[in-house]
């Protein structure tokens, strides 16, 4: 009968099924209420499809072309490419640790290597320009290299560096486009990068930021430039947009501000820093967000179910409905785990 | 390879287009991508609850359709077969890339925070804000469903596939689809009761 009730919400009953269901509903108030609730739910939930926003034809054709090229390339080319690839990944790792623009101690330019591939030369050139403080020229050089070497299997490393350079320089519209190209056209470069999680986080923030010209990202920049007022700025970002990647980033930076370097590798230290920050906060939504993060850390990293349950319970009372819902879901999972420890 | 004019291909029905690709008309793939990329992405998005994952899944699914078109049987319809590839790819992706239990939602609520420079018509803004709120709630609620329940709900509610076609897509009976749908609706009803 449950299946018939669900199917009826979408008008998908055969005539005989409809008669059987109607007979049942005539005498079962519980099922009747359920059927009505489903009908209301189906009517209430919009049917709009999320927008893809891009055309995949060219991207997929390019990937099919690359696969074909790999299949038909002579073996020796791929042996050389493998050696160069190892060097590129090491170089990209170093570059993609993303020293902020103008940071003292930026390493000296790499000496040019006559046997380097065009992609490696482009990365070396960009590194030298960044070291000299010329980020705009570095960006232009990488953009040109990405176009010139479009067929090179390692051009994804150029695209990755381009995206990171744009982001580190707060050119968020350019970074948005560059990361989009990176993920769509060069997923292998993302997979190979040790900063894969950071790439995801940045993409989330950039995507969210399209609606308001990356206002939250600029707020985070303002906090970094203004250490004395940073706490309040971070709190404001979290309070106004608790369910965004920017809020998650604000929490991470708040933890670093309050806790110093220690929390980065120490979940217990992070929880302590979050608790300290929470006590200092005035905004109840920001407090709820920190309670949610404390609860998740306590659950996932510390196995401290008492702390997790307490924090998530508080977060589940938040006036922000989405945040409260997320906290409630996790709270139920924690309670379930307490009942059935594996 | 035989080539067809773009106009000809656009005029082909879904099954005819797939048959053309199956018969070796490589260029039919472009029209297949144009026609189905939105639907494949949309279903992938509702299952993975993440835009980037959904983009990955959409690409991999369409490439898989290209490579495996030889295994498609015309008797079963092209869309259910494509939805099967989408669902399998999305669920595999979730297993391989298990992330945090709660994930940032791409459809962030629009707000009036300082620094916002866009100034649309007030009525439009209010409508968009409400639409974004509802979508955010739905995306949060989908997390409670199992991947299969999300797939059934996405294909029925958003894509309008018949339950029989969903059964083909999932490789199960229509009865199983109905049970998955019941469980999905039941959980969503609980999560979204204040929206009703």
Description:
The complex is a heterodimer of chains A (342) and B (196). Chain A has 342 residues and is mostly helical. Helix content of chain A is 73%, strand content 0%. Chain A is built from 18 helices and no strands. Chain A has helices at residues 2-8, 15-27, 29-44, 57-72, 75-96, 118-131, 135-148, 155-168, 172-185, 187-192, 196-209, 215-225, 230-240, 245-259, 267-280, 284-300, 305-315, 321-339. The longest helix of chain A has 22 residues, at 75-96. The two termini of chain A are 34 Å apart. The model of chain A is unreliable at 75-109 (pLDDT under 50). Chain B is globular. Chain B starts with 5 loop residues before the first helix and ends in a 5-residue tail after the last helix. In chain B, helix 3 (28-48) packs across helix 7. The longest helix of chain B is centred in the N-terminal third of the chain and has 21 residues, at 28-48. In chain B, 67% of the residues lie in helices and 0% in strands. The chains are: A mainly alpha (342), B mainly alpha (196). Chains A and B meet through helix 1, helix 3, helix 4, helix 11 and helix 12 of A and helix 3, helix 4, helix 6, helix 7 and helix 9 of B.
Task: Give the SSE layout.
The complex is a heterodimer of chains A (342) and B (196).
Chain A: H1 2-8, H2 15-27, H3 29-44, H4 57-72, H5 75-96, H6 118-131, H7 135-148, H8 155-168, H9 172-185, H10 187-192, H11 196-209, H12 215-225, H13 230-240, H14 245-259, H15 267-280, H16 284-300, H17 305-315, H18 321-339
Helix pairs in contact in A: 1-3, 2-3, 5-6, 5-8, 6-7, 7-8, 8-9, 9-11, 12-13, 13-14, 13-16, 14-15, 15-16, 16-17, 16-18, 17-18
Chain B: H1 6-11, H2 14-22, H3 28-48, H4 51-68, H5 78-96, H6 122-142, H7 147-158, H8 163-170, H9 174-191
């Amino acid at each position: 009968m449950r299946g018939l009730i669900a199917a009826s919400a979408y008008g998908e009953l055969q005539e005989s099924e409809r008669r059987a269901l109607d007979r049942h509903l005539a005498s079962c108030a519980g099922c009747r209420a359920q059927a009505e609730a489903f009908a209301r739910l189906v009517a209430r939930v919009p049917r709009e499809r999320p927008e893809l926003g891009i055309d995949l034809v060219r991207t997929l054709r390019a990937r099919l072309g690359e696969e074909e090229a790999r299949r038909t390339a002579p073996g020796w080319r791929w042996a050389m490419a493998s050696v160069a690839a190892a060097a590129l990944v090491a170089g990209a790792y170093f570059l993609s640790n993303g020293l902020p623009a103008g940071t003292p101690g930026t390493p000296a330019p790499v000496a040019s290597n006559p046997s380097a591939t065009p992609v490696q030369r482009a990365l070396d050139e960009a590194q030298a320009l960044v070291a000299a403080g010329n980020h705009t020229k570095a960006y232009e050089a990488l953009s040109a290299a990405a176009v010139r070497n479009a067929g090179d299997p390692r051009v994804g490393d150029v695209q990755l560096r381009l995206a990171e350079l744009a982001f580190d320089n707060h050119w968020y519209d350019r970074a948005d486009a560059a990361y989009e190209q990176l993920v769509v056209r060069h997923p292998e470069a993302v997979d190979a990068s040790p900063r894969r999680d950071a790439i995801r986080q940045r993409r989330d923030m950039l995507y969210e930021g399209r609606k308001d010209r990356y206002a939250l990202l600029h707020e985070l920049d303002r906090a970094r430039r203004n250490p004395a007022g940073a706490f309040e700025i971070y709190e404001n970002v979290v309070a106004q947009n608790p369910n965004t990647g920017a809020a998650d980033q604000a929490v991470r930076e708040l933890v670093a501000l309050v806790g110093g370097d220690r929390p980065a590798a120490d979940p217990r230290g992070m929880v302590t820093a979050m608790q300290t920050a929470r006590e200092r906060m005035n905004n109840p939504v920001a407090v709820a967000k920190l309670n949610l993060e404390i609860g998740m850390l306590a659950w996932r990293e510390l196995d401290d179910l008492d702390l997790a349950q307490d924090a998530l319970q508080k977060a589940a009372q938040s006036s922000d409905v989405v945040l409260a819902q997320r906290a409630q879901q996790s709270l139920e999972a924690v309670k379930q785990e307490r009942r059935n420890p594996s | 390879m035989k080539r067809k004019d773009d106009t000809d291909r656009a005029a082909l029905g879904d099954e005819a287009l797939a048959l053309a690709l199956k018969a070796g008309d490589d260029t039919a793939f472009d029209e297949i991508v144009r026609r189905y990329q939105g639907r494949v992405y949309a279903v992938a998005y509702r299952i993975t609850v993440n835009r980037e994952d959904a983009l990955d899944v959409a690409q991999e699914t369409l490439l898989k359709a290209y490579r495996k078109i030889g295994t498609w049987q015309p008797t079963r319809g092209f869309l259910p077969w494509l939805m099967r590839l989408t669902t399998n790819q999305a669920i595999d992706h979730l297993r391989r890339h298990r992330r945090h239990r709660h994930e940032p939602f791409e459809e962030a609520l629009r707000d009036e925070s300082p620094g916002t420079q866009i100034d649309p018509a007030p009525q439009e803004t209010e409508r968009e804000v409400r639409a974004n709120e509802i979508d955010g709630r739905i995306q949060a609620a989908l997390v409670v469903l199992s991947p299969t329940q999300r797939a059934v709900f996405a294909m029925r509610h958003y894509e309008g596939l018949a339950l029989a076609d969903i059964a083909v897509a999932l490789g199960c009976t229509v009865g199983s689809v109905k049970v998955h749908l019941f469980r999905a609706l039941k959980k969503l009803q609980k999560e979204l009761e204040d929206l009703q």
